[in-house]
Write a structure and sequence with these properties.
Length: 348
């Protein structure tokens, strides 16, 4: 009787201890859920896709070690699939000791087929929490059957230079050959110049024609062309005024080629050497402006008068000739100079 009672009490105590241990274990196990989803269920061979992993539950968000995840691909699938990278975790603190962790596992497919991926494990110091399984289909790359595929590349033509086409001795001594060609060319040029009777030394520059003679010569050539008789009055007055503008530039330094008729008149009045002849130039410029811009047809007498006025303007503004010393004065001056230089007799 006593033995049976003792055994009953012992069984009761053991059952209570078992229930307490089971309750403690259940209380110590955290409430964590792991969910995995593919970014794309189909993948072209050679490309990458992501497995989005979401961990939700009793997690210490401030603990950096509480974000570890793992995807163990079996050896049978390692030739077809590979984990390329795992992104950094995004931790959201939900309060009351709960948090959410988001991470991506990047995988790459190398062989076509349908593959069931193992669960993603969320790792804690005490246990591992698996996710659901995912299925990925990898399909081969489409190949155009009309295009041939070779496992080797075509022969590439080398990048040749000019020296590659020359003989070895010429490529080796090209610098000396160039010097010899320059020397031979210079010698041939000197010989040719001597044969033609040309001097290698530059000729003395020809003396420039003075402005007065140049202007009178150009006016004479213009008169001989008889442009007005052919009805080309505009060309006649254009060339006439250009000759006078060049004369003013070369004789007095007046930039008449860039001036209007009014500016030329003002410049002539300001110049002492041309002030007295300003009216002649004014009449020429006025007639030329009427012909060139107003399309006036002048009379033949007007054309002749314009030429005569141009010649008179140049004659009136030519530089004055230097006074010449008469021959007898030169002789007297020479005699006087020689007598001054002759020795004088000493005074007694």
């Amino acid at each position: 009787m006593h033995i049976t009672s003792f055994r009953s009490r012992l069984l009761s105590v053991a059952s209570a201890l078992s229930l307490w241990a089971a309750g403690s274990a259940m209380a110590a196990t955290p409430d964590i859920t792991v969910k995995a989803s593919l970014d794309s269920a189909t993948l072209e061979m050679g490309r990458k896709t992501a497995i989005h992993v979401e961990v939700f539950g009793t997690i210490n968000a401030s603990d950096s070690s509480a974000t570890a995840i793992e995807l163990n691909i079996p050896d049978s699938l390692k030739s077809a699939l590979e984990v390329s990278a795992i992104t950094d975790p995004e931790v959201s603190d939900l309060g009351n000791g709960r948090a959410r962790i988001l991470r991506d596992i990047i995988i790459q497919g190398f062989d076509s087929g349908v593959y069931t991926l193992p669960p993603v494990l969320y790792l804690t110091p005490d246990s591992a929490f698996p996710s659901n399984e995912t299925v990925l289909k990898v399909y081969p790359v489409a190949v155009d059957s009309l295009k041939s595929i070779h496992d080797y590349a075509d022969v590439v033509a080398p990048n040749r230079q000019i020296l590659d086409y020359l003989p070895d001795w010429m490529a080796r001594y090209w610098w000396w050959i160039l010097i010899a060609l320059v020397v031979i060319g210079a010698g041939a040029y000197i010989w040719w110049r001597k044969k033609q009777g040309a001097s290698i030394i530059p000729a003395t520059p020809v003396k420039k024609e003075n402005p007065v003679d140049a202007a009178l010569r150009l006016l004479g050539e213009l008169r001989e062309e008889k442009l007005c008789q052919r009805g080309e009055e505009k060309l006649y007055y254009t060339r006439l005024t250009d000759i006078l503008r060049i004369y003013l530039r070369d004789r007095f330094g007046i930039n008449a080629m860039e001036m209007t008729s009014t500016q030329i008149r003002r410049a002539l009045r300001d110049n002492e050497a041309t002030r007295m002849s300003t009216d002649l130039m004014s009449r020429i410029l006025e007639m030329a402006d009427f012909v060139k811009f107003a399309k006036v047809r002048p009379l033949p007498d007007d054309n002749i008068a314009a030429m005569n006025q141009a010649v008179k303007f140049i004659d009136d503004t030519r530089p004055a000739p230097e006074p010449e010393t008469p021959a007898e004065n030169v002789a007297d001056a020479t005699t006087a100079k020689s007598s001054d230089n002759s020795p004088k007799a000493p005074k007694s």
